[in-house]
Amino acid sequence: MKIGLYFGTFNPIHVGHLIIANHMAEHSDLDKIWMVITPHNPFKKKKSLLDNHHRYQIVQRALEDYDKIEPSTIEFDLPQPNYTVNTLAHLTEKYPEYEFCLIMGEDNLKSLHRWKNYETILEYHQIYVYPRISEGTMAPRFKDHQSIHIVDAPIVEISATAIRKGIASGKNIRPLLPENVFEYIDEMNFYR
Question: What rounded mean pLDDT belongs to the chain?
Answer without folding.
Answer: 93
